[in-house]
């Protein structure tokens, strides 16, 4: 005989361990495991009583082998405790059950009109074979760009390196994005990398901190005279207003 904690048995049956009293547990154990010894008192520092279970059930607890009756019991207790089950897939995953086995139990309980169910459709995005290749190797334009060295690459070599659609689409998209350009200065058509940087100089209103510009003339500005030094955001004084109605 092998011993297991009452808390483990309660969890296995889908019950809350703190709510299981000794007498109730004895009745449950006798129902699910006939001819078992009486519950032993706490000992050896365990926080809850322990019960003796037969070797067959102990092996099931250790190996994770679950019978249809166990799934049915756990499912019914879950439905009773939560006034239903929102998702059978989540229920199966939470207890380590095979969802197909849970579905079989659901069908059986439905035929007995013990439960009613409603199908929930689940969808997920899956990559196509082409998209999976782009994830692994990069988009066509990225592949083309990364294959071009600093000195450029002859167009013929690029076409040979990327035959078919990847080369055609990649070169077209890379040129539209202005990542690459063609160069004939060496007498040979080359594809070269292209990018931009910027040279900066001080502007007429340069400052170490951005000045917040006012967008309207307020009464406070007129009263205090701060409008004389306040910088305003440029506005078009010649713009026509909204025509009046009527």
From TrEMBL:
Pfam assignment, any one: PheRS_DBD1
Coiled-coil region list: none
InterPro entries according to UniProt: PheRS_DBD1, PheRS_DBD3
Record domain PheRS DNA binding: where: 67-125, 139-196
Keyword Ubl conjugation: no
Keywords of the record: Ligase
One Gene Ontology molecular-function label: ligase activity
Record has Ligase as a keyword: yes
Name the UniProt record assigns to this protein: AA_TRNA_LIGASE_II domain-containing protein
Taxonomic source organism: Haematococcus lacustris
């Amino acid at each position: 005989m092998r011993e297991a904690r009452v808390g483990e048995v309660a969890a296995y049956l889908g019950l809350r361990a703190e709510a299981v009293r000794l007498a109730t547990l004895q009745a449950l154990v006798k129902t699910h495991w006939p001819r078992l010894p009486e519950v032993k008192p706490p000992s050896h520092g365990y926080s809850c009583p322990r019960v003796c279970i037969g070797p067959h059930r102990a092996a099931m607890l250790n190996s994770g082998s679950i019978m249809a009756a166990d799934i049915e019991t756990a499912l019914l207790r879950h439905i009773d405790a939560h006034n239903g089950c929102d998702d059978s897939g989540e229920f199966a995953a939470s207890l380590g059950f095979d969802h197909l086995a849970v579905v079989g139990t659901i069908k059986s309980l439905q035929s007995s009109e013990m439960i009613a169910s409603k199908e929930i459709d689940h969808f997920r995005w899956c990559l196509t074979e082409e998209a999976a290749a782009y994830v692994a190797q990069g988009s066509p334009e990225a592949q083309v760009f990364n294959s071009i060295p600093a000195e450029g690459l002859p167009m013929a070599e690029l076409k040979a390196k990327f035959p078919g659609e990847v080369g055609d689409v990649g070169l077209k998209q890379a040129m539209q994005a202005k990542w690459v350009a063609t160069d004939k200065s060496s007498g040979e058509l080359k594809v070269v990398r292209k990018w931009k940087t910027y040279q900066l100089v001080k502007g007429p209103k340069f400052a170490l901190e951005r000045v917040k510009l006012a967008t309207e003339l307020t009464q406070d500005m007129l009263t205090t005279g701060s409008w004389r030094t306040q910088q305003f955001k440029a506005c078009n004084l010649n713009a026509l207003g909204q025509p009046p109605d009527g």
